[in-house]
Design goal:
Chain lengths: 112, 114
């Protein structure tokens, strides 16, 4: 099945650093969601974006819905140990009831 | 806590057997979607139920089937299990028909086929 392209695939950073990751698609999505998944757990919703150009924050996390509607970005400021995990973007073509297409994931590791 | 619960959390089945996985949606949510997540990959859409009707299906064979009940809980059934069916199965609930796109996932069921 189709998956969106996320980059980088993995990141190794030190605590306190800022993090940036992105998600790109060859087709347009009308909603972008960002999730975080810990090993053996289900994805947890972080941020939902509904409009092209929208910038939304959730604490230290900020996500943007790309103007072309084919990409989205997630930034984490001042990373802490609990930020470790895999971050997935997901796009939905409709505004409500359609399936989510997930990205390939970005694995974030914090180096002591 | 998303309010979405799945059972069982883990199970092991033999190739050729059948399995039923269960999901209770978040209160007030009438849509349940099922996803398969292989190791190291993002979740892949299997199908979705809205108000007890299937209203979308991914690229999965007919031996993957489902149900949604009047209380909006749902089951995923897989017949004739194959080794490649080993994966984390996730269900997500959302308030369909509201224009709200957010979907909330359960903790998943880890299926191992041997």
């Amino acid at each position: 099945g189709q998956q969106l392209n996320q980059s980088p695939q993995s990141m190794f950073i030190q605590e306190g650093e800022d993090v940036s990751m992105n998600c790109t698609s060859s087709s347009i999505f009308n909603t972008w969601l960002w999730y975080k998944q810990d090993p053996g757990e289900g994805p947890v919703l972080l941020i939902a974006l509904y409009k092209a150009g929208e910038l939304t924050s959730n604490g230290r996390l900020t996500a943007q819905f790309g103007i072309t509607r084919k990409d989205s970005f997630l930034n984490i400021s001042a990373s802490i140990p609990s930020d470790v995990g895999i971050y997935f973007c997901a796009g939905r073509r409709g505004a409500g009831n359609e399936k989510l297409t997930f990205g390939t994931g970005t694995r974030l590791t914090i180096i002591p | 806590e998303t309010g979405v619960t799945q059972s069982p959390t883990h199970l092991i089945k033999t190739r050729g057997q059948q399995v039923t996985l269960r999901c209770s949606s978040q209160s007030g949510h009438n849509t349940v979607s099922w996803y398969q997540q292989a190791l190291g990959q993002g979740p892949q859409f299997i199908f979705q139920y809205y108000r007890e009707e299937e209203n979308g299906r991914g690229n999965f064979p007919p031996r993957f089937s489902g149900l949604q009940f009047p209380n909006y809980s749902s089951e995923l059934n897989v017949n004739a299990l194959e080794l490649d069916d080993s994966a984390l199965y996730l269900c997500a609930s959302s308030p369909g028909g509201t224009g709200i796109a957010e979907a909330f996932f359960g903790q998943g069921t880890r299926l191992t086929v041997v």
